[in-house]
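fwd from M.: "can u put these together and see what the complex looks like"

so here's what she sent:
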Amino acid sequence: MSAGTVSAEYTDRQDGHAVGGALVMVAGTVWYAFIADLLFVSGHLNQVLERVWLVSEDPAAVAGQWLAAMLLSLTRQVPDAGPQTLVMLTVLAGGFTLGAFYWRLRRVHWGLLEALAATALLALHPATLMLATTGQTLLLAVLLVGVVALALDRASTIGDAQSLMALGLALAALVLTAPDALYIALPILALLPFCLRDVRDSGSATALFLLTMFPALIAVGGILLAAATFGEAPTYAINRWVAPMHGVIEAANTPWLVRHGGQFFVPFLELLPLCAVAMPPALLPLLSLLVRPEERERPVTALLALLGGPISGAGATLFWHTAGPLPAIATGMAAVVAWSSSRRLQPAERLLWLLWLAIGVVLCWTTVWVWDDPDRLAWRHALLHRP
Amino acid sequence: MLNGPPREDETLAHLMLAQRLDTAALTRARAQARAWGMTIHETLVADGAISARDWAQAVAAVSNLPLADLQAMPADAALLDHAERDFYLAQSVIPWQRRPDGTVVLAAVRPMEPAVLAWAAQRFPGVPIAWAVTAKFDILWTLQLVFDHLADLAAREALYLRTPELSAKQVFTPRQVIFAAVVASLLLFGLWIAPVGTLIAGSALVTVFYLLSFAFRFLLTWVGARHDVGIAVHDHEIEALKSEELPTYTVLVPMYREKEVLPILVHSIRRLDYPRAKLDVKLVLEADDEETIEAAKALHAEGIFEIIRVPKSHPKTKPKACNYALHFARGELCVVFDAEDMPEPDQLKKAVALFKRSGPEVACVQARLNYFNRRENFLTRMFTLEYSNWFDYLLPGLHVLRVPIPLGGTSNHFRTDVLRDLGAWDPYNVTEDADLGVRLTQAGYEVAVVNSTTFEEANGVLPSWINQRSRWIKGYMQTWLVHMRRPIRLYRRLGFVGFWGFQFFVGFPVLTAMLNPLLWATTAAALIWGSAAVDRFFPSPIIYLAMFNLVVGNAMYVYLTMVAAAKRGWFMLMPWALLAPVYWVLHSVAAYKAFWQLLLRPHYWEKTQHGTSSATQEALAAIAQPSGAR
């Protein structure tokens, strides 16, 4: 078979995956829209959406989550837009994510049915359902965690200039989207010099560190300068980052913070199994680290999938900056999804992946710990108990 | 009477008996000739074991033919026909003299060659033919002498006479002048009638234009930053090339008053991994540059080096010199190097492999350029970052996006026939390579970028840097003006992406360099007198974009400069990228000088002085050392 034929077949296959991804995206969007509709009918969403919608009117809340605020502000410019528009956006983003996930799985040689099953399980997961149907900006941050994980993986394996740029830009976008992203960005940055391919000495480490950090510095610098130009004090720009509870002080009495606020190790040890139960395929990176030398050689993405969620959640809990475990679980899930879609898993591993995720979905829907928060409980109630 | 071409073995035996050739050189030459598919004679001359004159003398001796010293006894110009010039050059033969009895004497490097015999029978029917032996340099010298005027005229005017609309000889067309006058009048009228509204429209236009320029530059860098974009030719492809199938390669090296870097050039050519007998190196020197001509002669370099003297005429530019030298090129492929260039040894083979792999639409291969003296001072560091960005990211990005590639000043490899068909370089354009890149694309050809680097000397002296940069910017202005004479035709030929890519890559950077001081002044005014001073001209939607350009756009340009060093792992250069804004100021100075020159001296060539760098001096010292001492 000639190289040309192989190339043509490869292109055809890629095109097929792209079409499949688009179809999954449409199906995913319809699915999330259906769930959102159920929630609307129950009346549960109105109050939640109203709260998010009004956030962009509060400068103190806006500071620190610039990207999300900018998107909110743009959404508000759309004629006849209202709080419900937010759901439409998250539903679309959720559908897009499912399509992209399917497409990436197919690119790393998952079979059609395997990829469809994996995507369907992800779509059924309460965490993704909640993120996609409640119109919250957390979805954007979670998606960006996935993008950061993919960029980090590419930077550590291929290490070309484009991957470094992608990592730098993704980190900048993440930090500007959610103040709590600091707790995932900082561990990544600390590990960065050890995971990039071209790091040979302290000089190259510093240079690559600078390359990855610079976009975030530009973004923050730009915000500071813009604030100064419009007569605002520089602290305005970092208000949200330095504020107690990152500006959501009303969440201080959540059960999670009452139990763990101000601590790191206890919530970390609690989040570790929680993340694993919510997304059991997180154990596959651990297995891969144990048995595959190439994974141990570039361990950063696997470690992120395994520990990213618990570390970020525990860090945020230490500084009273998170209301509950959901952001940490979602962060961990995003990292696991990114890792899974960038590795060529063996058929047995793929089967294990599907089985474990199915168990995770069942556990999440049935066990108590996910539903110990009044908001989440209300969401489930609205979904499962029709008026 | 000679019955056939002189036998090579007899000539070799004669040379050995005369002790002009030793056994080791002959053994080496035999092996090389076999491997390269060349004659032993060509290999010996290329190797420097004997001179072309030595060979001619030996051939004359063994064949009992007279030796024609064409410099002492020049050819009869009446016998030479300009239409046959290429044949003379290819076959190394010329009609030399007509004897009183009517016999025509042909002076040839290889007498009695069948192809020459056939030609002679047709060219001089019924006329007795006699033979003399000469050396290839005598033929070259004669052709230059006899056809000097015509070759010079062709070098200067061929493109203009054939396609005047593609020549920069005329700087502005009447239509362009009228258009500029209309735009200027409208602007003045607007400022008179509604000054604030006009300035707001202007600021909006400039803001959007800067935003798009930044977006385009970012896109190019992003695309060019992929690890697999830059790799064009792999080692196994080079290994698969058969020496005997490699084409003859013409290397043009235009020089002017650069005798000091000649040893670097010869050294670099010798280092090339290419059958030496298949190299056709032309040292293209201006006829009035006696000191470089004498220095080149004094090198006593191998027979592959030929001196081409370019007649003194206007314009005195590098493209004119290259056009003139191209008349004498024998290679299927040709490349232009500057005198101080140090191409990577595998560059010619990589270009051959790339041409071989590509279709006939790829007419040119651009090698990457970078600097060997990057750590010398601020200017050389910034220049290196700029070149790294340009050749390692932007040009591959242009190639992927199918935007015309403005060729860099040197290390452009061409299919010689295509180059000739296109009319070669525009002698009136001071960035003739950039212009040629666009012309190639317009003619339906492609330019590829190869993963081989030529190291040059970065200009580290400020006045010289300004001169060089002003020439480049002036050349970009000329190129833009030439190709925008018929914008609709350009759009049809380049397509949407190609057309706008041309605007953003060739036209707009020049404009930004000129507009920057104005915007810096506006920013300074806002900082000194408060934002109220400029608020009126930047209403709400525009100010946000302007702020974005000012902060994020500029900082991202710095970032892209920083990224430039990543591909080559030159991490120590990265912090210098923070000083890029200082470098932009120098660009603006050069841009205004360029504009001034475009109006007053459009075809003047600002000569760049080479050999000033300490790294160059060190390289020269290293080359001058005997090999055993190194």
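replying to her w this: Chain A has one domain: 14-384.
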